[in-house]
Amino acid sequence: MRFPSVVRQAGLVVAVTALALTAGCAKKDDSEVQASGVKLVSAGKLTVCTHLPYPPFQSKDASGKVTGFDVEIMDLVAKELGVEQTIIDTPFEGIKSGQDLNTGKCDAAAAGMTITEERRKVIDFSDPYFDATQAMLVKTGKTYKSLDDLKGKKLGVQAATTGRDYAKKYEAEKGLKLVEFEDLAALQQAVANGQVEAAINDLPVWTEYLKKNPGGFEVAAEFDTGEQYGFPVKKDANPELLKKINEVLAKAKQDGTYDTIYEKWIGKRPSA
Amino acid sequence: MKLRRRQRERLSLGLQYLVFIAIIAAVLIAADWDRLADAFFRVDIIKSMFPTIITVALRNTILYTLGAFAFGLVFGTILALMRLSRVAPYRWVATAYIELFRGLPALLVLFLVGYGIPIAFPEREIPGGVFGSIAIGLGLTAAAYMAETIRAGIQAVPKGQMEAARTLGMSHFTAMRTIVVPQAFRIVIPPLTNELILLTKDSSLAYVLGVTAQTIEITKFGRDMLNDRVNATPLLVAGLAYLVITLPLSQVVRRLELRYAKAR
Question: Where is the Solute-binding protein family 3/N-terminal domain (chain A) (predicted)?
Fold first, then answer.
């Protein structure tokens, strides 16, 4: 009988195919590119994920280039590594859930991102680089001064942010009606055209907005939540990069570079 | 090695099965199952999604879809009749509309409705809030597609039907209304049901309008849960929730198509 030998042959073909496939699917950890001893997802570039627009931390300028506070700090890191920074615009939830880092989309993220315990479970954070306060924006002429004044009113928040989490905490207690928007631009639109009475986001974000749109809006309340921003890096995967970022941060704070960037984007540093 | 033709065929078929199985096996072996299960199948998270995913998210998805479908169907029928009209300007307007709205992404149209209308008409709200905005936003796009489908349906009704009706003394309008359009709708039920399935998924675009805990639909609910729990399980459950709607609808389309094929 010839058939069994044919089957055996077929088995061999299959085995080889399977092997080839498995090899093809193998993780590419070993082939990652190195720069000054730091692993990078693509050669010659520090790939950074963010969610645009989020001025003054990251947004496009008139020429279409992404710039901002976070961007300039990350530029320092890239310079230290001897590479260029490339910025990828991606939904915030991909950054926050750690998936963008896990799937190798980027080396780190710089997205005005608050360090929280929940987020720490899925990503490693750099040292804090910014103290953030939450604030409430309203149209000029509205009399809301605190969350209490918003009982039964619509309050806009941005999806996946700590501002949203903060408002959520008081939603039931203060009888707020939370409306969630995908990004900052939509949230600003909603306040501007009266879809919501007020909106919560990080204070520097509103300060920047007021600078660009003078007269129509004001910050009605500030909520000191003790939040601090950090740069996320893939969990337990790239301690070298994390160390590098922290070194650059420490150096920049010492030699005054940090203050220069702070004053350029945020304004006068509060005397702590 | 010389094989007879039948043996060769059997061998070739067997090989194809084996390669197919091998590919699946390779993928199954290469995947990191523990991490996958932890990322996409956490039972505690699945439990925490009920009953809200049904009572709020699924319900809203169905409501938005039906709203957009109803708006699109009425408007689409009008457009189809306009395109077939003997009055030239009607045809021009309908053609221009269809070309325009078939060419625009639904997301863009929805954004224009949600943010443009409140700016154009300050202090006025679209009736029904998110529901009204999405019914109009998605309905405007759906109407363009449906108009073409319905027009094709009307044209598929044999000419003799109209001629016979006119011979009996019916006016053109009455013949259209009572003889041609009802038959046309029977023809276009399967493609319209497909449109309904497409709309079900497009209703996920509601997020651009800004949603509250009461107006949230399936996709946004899944994404929010993903954010709160920092785990992808909610996305899987959200996907299954869509299948609860779309799979029965697909069955309906298949049945109708079969029945229609038999009737011919």
Answer: 45-269
